[in-house]
Amino acid sequence: MDPQALARLTLLAAILAVSGANLPSNVSTTTSGQTNSTTYIVQAGDTLFSIATKFNTTIAALQQANNITNPNALSVGQRLLIPGAVAQNAVTPSPTARGPTPGVTRETSNVTPVANAETETYIVKAGDTLAGIAAQFGVALAELQRINNIANPNLLSVGQRLIIPKISNTAPTLPDGIVLDPQVVKQGETITLRVTTENVAEVLGKFDQQQLRFNKIENQWVALIGISRCANYVGEYSVNLTVRDNLGNPKAEQFNVRVNAGTFPTQDLTLTSEMSALLDPAIMNAENALVAQTVSAYTPGQAWNGKFRSPLDVQNPRVSTNFGDRRSYNGGAPGLCGHEGIDYAVPGGTPVFAPASGIVVLAQPLHVRGNVVFIDHGRGVFSAFYHLSKIIAQPGQRVSAGDKVGEVGTTGFSTGDHLHWSMWVNGIYVNPVEWTERAIP
Questions:
Q1: pLDDT of residue 127
Q2: How many Cβ atoms are within 10 Å of 276's Cβ, its own excluded?
Q3: Where in the sequence of the chain do the CATH 2.70.70.10 domains occur?
């Protein structure tokens, strides 16, 4: 070998040795003749796809280099030769990143997911899907893919370690004269937004795409915000306000609110063929449209005062399904949004009472929800009771807290006697229990 070639080989070996010092313990580099490669030791949860993505190569190249005929047959501790590649150093994703740059398509990433103070880890179990895990933790599927650098959400391995965003306990930075309650927000909650600035004549605003309606209460302008329970509704959301003073001069205010994931376990239900028939899209869509139209109305006045009472005069009724619980029917994937309200397992015929004052706006049988009563409490707040055996309240009737509106039953899509209680704020399903625990103006 001529001296120049020998010098080049010596320099190459030195460079590779230095690079190898920064590699993970399960990665090493080798030099043979004029070729170099990386040796990787298979870890729990690895797939050939994830390894190919990590080293910016292809599954076919890995199979050829390692004489692998079945790409799904990997063993923990197995040594793989990664031809012509050096592993990328681990990089922690930015916690504020919301995804790829608009207009740019990115199939794979060389970034290795790393846990930090704002995340927790989850080990994939048999039968898990990425969509189901996202629903369980209330994380958007796309966000879970981004954080874990998963290009194909259908490729998961038992034992694979996933990074899940944690709840943030940091209150947002708010402009002067703006107050939020609560300051740390979870899915399904109701936010009270107050503008306390003096000499204000009008406040207009939006939370994300939700139109806010402000009422003047004493010397403050107050709006309610409903936070969705759906799995894709986690992250930073903008609030944009226009505050007009008594002379008509507008002032724009903008700030962000982080919505944390709720804790919504998955409930497995087995349905009969008769019950499955009620989930026909034609039936569901028509009924959902009626409900959406009913709860989208807005009555400016506030009918309630203080906390809502329980709709049952039963001591500690058993809860069979909590608000937001994800449901799997006959072994299928859990739904994106989970249970619409809270279910109390109490005997049929148990009286159901209005939880607060309002006007009955719907009282009739429905296919899926059974016999229902809907109450408009004003300011975009609604209550509804499903599966009743008997409807007592009438449309247009004004009710007060404690008035009897129906009786518990098992009509519609129901597997036994229980009371289902749903609530909405600005057309968004919210947790009714929160309204019984604190006074929301």
A1: 86
A2: 12
A3: 266-437
Phi, psi angle pair for 311, to nearest 5°: -75, 0
Q: Which amino acid makes up residue 366?
A: L
pTM here is: 0.68
What dihedral do alpha carbons 337, 382, 240, 217 form, nearest 10°?
-150
Q: Could you confirm whether domain 266-437 is CATH 2.70.70.10?
A: yes
354 three-class SS:
coil
Quickly name the fold that domain 3-83 has.
Answer: Membrane-bound Lytic Murein Transglycosylase D; Chain A (3.10.350)
- Name 332's Cβ contacts closer than 8 Å, sequence gap at least 6: none
Structure tokens at 273: 């063929």
Find how far residue 351's CA is from the centre of its chain.
34
- Signed CA dihedral, 99, 101, 103, 104: sign only: negative
Helix, strand and coil content of the chain, in percent to the nearest 5, comes to: 15, 35, 50
Here the tokens at position 50 are 């994830």
pLDDT: which is higher, 382 or 126:
382
- Convert the pLDDT of each residue in 136-183 to its tens digit: 776 777 778 877 888 888 888 898 999 887 667 788 899 999 999 999
- Cβ proximity of 365 and 371 under 8 Å: yes
Q: pLDDT digits over 359-380, tens only?
A: 999 999 999 999 999 999 999 9
Cα 64 to Cα 13, 48, 71, 167, 302: the distances in Å are 25, 12, 11, 44, 71
Read off the tokens for 181: 């309650």
Q: What CATH number is given for 178-260 in this structure?
A: 2.60.40.10
Q: How far, in Å, CA of 304 to CA of 190, rounded?
A: 15
| 182: preceding bond cis by omega (within 30 degrees) | yes
Q: Give the pair of three-digit tokens for residue 91.
A: 């990089």
Q: What separation in angstroms does the CA of 177 have from each of 188, 195, 213?
A: 26, 6, 17
Under 8 Å CB-to-CB from 376, ≥6 apart: which residues? 297, 299, 303, 358, 359, 360, 361, 382
C-alpha 374/C-alpha 294 separation (Å) is 8
Query: How many Å apart are CA 424 and CA 140, to the nearest integer?
Result: 22
175: tokens are 């402009």
Helix axes 141-148, 130-137, angle to 10 degrees: 110
Q: How far is CA 161 from the centre of its chain?
A: 20
